[in-house]
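BUG: 3D viewer hangs when loading the predicted structure for this chain

Environment: internal workstation, default settings.
Expected: structure renders.
Actual: progress bar stalls at 90%.

Input used:
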Amino acid sequence: MRPRRLPNPGIRVFCFPHAGAGAGAFTPWARRLPQEAELCAIRYPGRENRIDEEPFEDLHLLVNALEPVITPLTDRPFVFLGHCSGSVVALEVARLIHDRHGRLPVALFVSSIAGPVRHSSESIHLLPREAFFERVAQYGGIDASVLDDPEIMDVFEPTLRGDFRIAEERPSQHTVPLDVPITAVGGRHDPFVSFEDLMAWREETSAEFSVQHIEAGHFVLDQTMERMVDALPAYRQQASAG
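Structure tokens produced before the viewer hung:
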């Protein structure tokens, strides 16, 4: 979804949502980007106006479905940003677009999730219903009124489980690093993702890498967006110079 379409954007920002979320998580930022930047918020099946569509449970299938939709919009400099499980999808889409078309984002922002080499064997998506919802609530990012509504959760549960399965069954073997600057953002008080987990993203890039370990818990989407927005002018300038 592109909430503020530009006739000739200087740079595009592709945002990949966390488990259970959709494009709406990013739309408030459309007018906070620099004037020449266009927001492209990814909306997977099984949420928002795609609620009736079957959600993906397999990372490979999701990435292969997204690539032909995203690639035509990578005709100018672009940035990828993912929050939590969205970081996994962003990385794999970047790999596929590079493999198929030789294009790379000028930057990748990831947040609140361990780098692939520190992949956990935990299977949250297999937890019993009550335990699963309790764990989802601990992560934040989904309104309590939604989690407390049994009818909504009956509809939404397959989507949530599918998103967690995608993150939990992602590839953990080491692959060739991408020549893309990566910024990893996480909260100092995140009970699920440690500083060492964030540092593991260093293995995914042959370019610059930085960690922003901030005073926050697990849900740092807004803080990650803020850091990306602040960095956009520099990335745009570098792309123009290149």
